Amino acid sequence: xxxxxxxxxxxxxxxxxxVGSAIVVVFSKRIIYSAFALLFTLFGxxxxxxxxxxxxxxxxxxxxxxxGILTLIIFGVFLTTKLxxxxxxxxxxxxxxxxxxxxxxxxxxxxxxxxxxxFAHASAAEPTTKDxxxxxxxxxxxxxxxxxxLLLAALIGAMRLARPREEDQDD
Amino acid sequence: xxxxxxxxxxxxxxxxxxxxxxxxxxxxxxxxLASIELMLNAVNLTFVAFARHWGDVTGQVFVFFSxxxxxxxxxxxxxxxxxxxxxxxxxNIDEVNLLKW
Lengths: 171, 101
Hints:
The complex is a heterodimer. In chain A, 74% of the residues lie in helices and 0% in strands. Chain A has seven helices and no strands. In chain A, helix 1 packs antiparallel against helix 2 and helix 2 packs antiparallel against helix 3. The model of chain A has no long low-confidence stretch (mean pLDDT 85). Chain B is mostly helical. Helices cover 77% and strands 0% of the residues of chain B. Chain B contains three helices and no strands. Chain B is elongated, with a radius of gyration of 17 Å. Classes of the chains: A mainly alpha, B mainly alpha. At the A-B interface, helix 1, helix 2, helix 3, helix 4 and helix 5 of A face helix 1, helix 2 and helix 3 of B.
């Protein structure tokens, strides 16, 4: 009983952390606050993966998103903000027009979620890392290899793009 | 009250819509990229919730691949943003009209 209550409390804490920091990411006036709020959103989603018995994905969420993507985004913020001179005020546009598509999409999603009867398939909450590894190296072996090629291509492409041009380097 | 599938679905729907709001309203290209990450995370959460609900790990495999694609996307996207900043001294997307006619 006490464990159930504790689980509930931790679950709702993760939910509030995720949604609250997601709102900060989108609506914060200062870009660096947005970047750091994204850390808490990604961390909250990793916590929810643990609740869903996806422990391997929770670990990779922390490694890939918090360790990799977030670092990249913070570097991007630093590289594209003028440290000298005036800072550009963060602007928003179409603030009221955007309500229409957002409300429409949330209405459609809620309609689908609550009108369809997702038949339950009760199963014990046990770690799925073993099954995931088996699937990745048998059924999904080809996509797994293609993913590594994609990562290599993205790595080379990003380096080639972000490098200064040769004529700029000469002077 | 037991934490059911619907809890995760509603949470993911909200997260997705926050991401859409960010893409539609913000002008800074990096925030737009972060909002896209929010949307990807919302969809991943839905996948994992259904994988748990049906006791099938295939949904988690999909999330694994979408994480790979997200990492590649962010690396290339930020490279483009850095190059853009070098050219235009700004990453305000309203000023990016190279491909507009």
